[in-house]
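Researcher: Let's do a round of design. I'm pasting the C-alpha cells now; please hold your answer until I've finished.
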C-alpha cells in the first residue's frame, strides 16, 4: 500500500487518524501498533511474521547486552549483526550472489545451469534492518538503555509512516516520544500541510518527470544527445521529488500522530561539492553510514590512506545497500571516488569559485544517476557516450513528449529543487490575507494532485524496491 494510492488516502489514513483521536492517550500506542502491522501486512503476511520475529529477537538481545559483561556484549552485538544482516542478505542479495557465481562457473563449464528460486524482496527491508541495527549498536555503545516494554520497541520498529522507505529513524531520536507525545491543533495542521506538499511533489512532479525519463531512457533506438541529457535531468528530478516527497509525507503524518521526525533532504541540488551533496541528500542514510561504519573503521582520525580506504568502503556499501546490482555498486564507488578527490586536493579550489563547484557537482551527480538508473554498465556507458559525443539522429523523435504539462512540471521541478520559493512563503506569512491565500493554494494543490492520482495509472515509487 503506497501513500499515493486511493485506498490509503481515502480509507486507511483517515480511519487510523479518526480512531487515534477517539481513543484515550493510554491506548494510542496500541492502536498505532495494530495499524502499522496491518499496513505492512498489506504487502504479505509472511513478511510480517519475519518482521515480528526480528523485533522479538532484537528485543531479547537488547536486554541481554545490557545485563552481560563486556566480553559477552560484543558477542551479542555480533549475533545481532549476523541475524539482521543475514536476513537482509538472504532476501535482497541471494539471487545476486547466485547469478554471479553461476556466471563465473560458466567460464569453465558453459553448459552449467543452476535454477535458483526467485526470492521476493520484502518491502522496506533495508530501512527497518538499519533501524534495528542502530538500536542494538546504541545500546552496546551506551548511548541508550534497552526498551523493556516489547510493545513500545515493536512500535518503534514498525510505525507505518517511515517504515516502508524511511527516513531511517533512530531509537535515540524518538525514545521520549514513544512514551509521551502531544497532538496539538497547530501541529496537526502543520502535518496536514507537510503531507499535502509531499503528496503534490510525488504525484505532480515526480510522476510526470518519471514518465518523461522512462519514455526517453527506455527507447535506446531513438537516442540523441539532447534527448539523453533531458532524460537524465528528468530522472534526477523524479528521484528527488519522489523520495523527498515521500519523506515530506512521512514527516507530515508523524506530526499528525505527535512525532517529530528529523529532516531527510535539504535541497541537495544546490550543493557546491559532493561532500555537501551527501550532507543534503538522504541525510538519515548518510549519517547512519557515518556513525555506524565510517567512524568505527577509524573515520579520518588516522592516516590519509586509511581515511581514503574508509570513504571507498562506505560508499561501496552505500551503493550495495541500494540494490543487488553492479550498477549500484559502481554508483557508490563513483561518489566515493569524487569524495576522495575532494578530500585530497579539490575541495579548496571549489570553495574559492562556488559557481564552478556547483556546475561540477551537478555534472558528477547527473552522470552518477545514469549508472543508478540504467540496468547494466555497458548500457550506462553507451548512454553517457551519446551525452558527450554529439549525435542528433532522431532528435525530433521525442518532441511529442513535451506537452505543455510536461514542460510546466519540468520547470516547476527545476525551481522547487532550490529554496527560492521559501522566501515567497515567508512573505506570505505577514498578513492574514496572504496566509489565507496560502492555505487556499494548498487546498487547491491537493485537489489537483488527487485528480491526477485517480486518473493516472503511472504511479511508481522508486525507493520501495530498496
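Researcher: That's everything. Go ahead.
Model: Designed sequence:
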Amino acid at each position: 500500500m503506497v501513500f499515493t494510492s486511493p485506498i490509503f488516502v481515502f480509507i486507511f489514513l483517515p480511519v487510523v487518524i479518526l480512531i487515534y483521536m477517539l481513543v484515550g492517550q493510554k491506548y494510542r500506542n496500541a492502536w498505532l501498533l495494530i495499524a502499522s502491522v496491518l499496513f505492512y501486512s498489506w504487502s504479505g503476511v509472511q513478511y510480517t511474521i519475519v518482521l515480528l520475529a526480528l523485533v522479538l529477537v532484537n528485543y531479547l538481545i537488547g536486554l541481554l547486552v545490557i545485563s552481560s559483561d563486556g566480553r559477552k556484549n560484543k558477542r551479542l552485538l555480533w549475533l545481532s549483526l549476523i541475524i539482521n544482516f543475514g536476513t537482509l542478505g538472504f532476501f535482497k542479495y541471494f539471487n545476486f550472489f547466485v547469478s554471479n557465481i553461476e556466471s563465473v562457473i560458466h567460464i569453465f563449464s558453459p553448459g552449467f545451469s543452476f535454477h535458483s528460486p526467485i526470492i521476493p524482496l520484502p518491502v522496506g527491508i533495508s530501512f527497518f534492518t538499519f533501524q534495528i541495527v542502530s538500536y542494538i549498536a546504541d545500546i552496546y555503545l551506551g548511548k541508550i538503555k534497552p526498551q523493556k516494554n516489547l510493545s513500545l520497541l515493536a512500535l518503534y520498529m514498525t510505525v507505518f509512516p517511515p517504515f516502508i522507505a524511511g527516513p531511517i529513524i533512530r531509537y535515540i531520536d524518538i525514545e521520549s516520544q514513544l512514551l509521551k507525545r502531544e497532538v496539538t491543533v497547530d501541529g496537526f495542521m502543520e502535518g496536514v500541510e507537510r503531507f499535502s506538499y509531499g503528496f503534490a511533489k510525488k504525484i505532480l512532479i515526480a510522476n510526470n518527470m518519471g514518465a518523461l525519463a522512462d519514455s526517453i531512457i527506455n527507447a535506446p533506438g531513438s537516442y540523441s544527445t539532447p534527448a539523453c541529457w533531458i532524460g537524465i535531468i528528468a530522472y534526477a528530478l523524479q528521484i528527488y521529488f519522489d523520495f523527498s516527497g515521500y519523506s515530506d509525507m512521512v514527516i507530515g503524518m508523524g506530526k499528525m500522530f505527535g512525532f517529530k521526525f528529523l529532516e531527510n533532504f535539504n535541497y541537495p541540488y544546490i550543493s557546491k561539492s559532493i561532500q555537501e551533496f551527501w550532507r543534503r541528500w538522504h541525510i538519515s542514510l548518510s549519517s547512519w553510514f557515518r556513525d555506524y561504519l565510517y567512524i568505527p573503521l577509524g573515520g579520518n582520525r588516522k592516516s590519509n590512506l586509511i581515511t581514503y580506504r574508509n570513504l571507498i568502503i562506505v560508499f561501496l556499501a552505500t551503493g550495495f545497500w541500494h540494490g543487488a546490482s553492479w550498477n549500484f555498486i559502481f554508483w557508490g564507488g563513483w561518489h566515493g571516488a569524487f569524495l576522495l578527490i575532494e578530500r585530497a586536493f579539490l575541495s579548496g579550489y571549489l570553495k574559492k569559485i562556488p559557481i564552478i563547484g556547483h556546475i561540477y557537482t551537478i555534472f558528477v551527480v547527473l552522470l552518477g544517476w545514469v549508472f543508478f538508473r540504467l540496468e547494466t554498465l555497458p548500457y550506462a556507458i553507451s548512454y553517457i557516450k551519446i551525452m558527450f559525443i554529439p549525435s542528433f539522429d532522431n532528435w525530433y523523435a521525442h518532441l511529442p513528449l513535451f506537452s505543455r504539462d510536461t514542460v510546466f512540471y519540468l520547470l516547476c521541478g527545476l525551481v522547487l529543487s532550490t529554496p527560492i520559493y521559501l522566501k515567497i512563503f515567508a512573505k506570505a506569512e505577514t498578513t492574514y490575507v496572504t496566509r489565507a491565500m496560502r492555505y487556499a493554494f494548498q487546498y487547491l494543490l491537493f485537489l489537483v494532485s488527487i485528480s491526477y492520482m485517480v486518473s493516472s495509472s503511472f504511479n511508481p515509487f522508486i525507493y520501495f524496491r530498496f
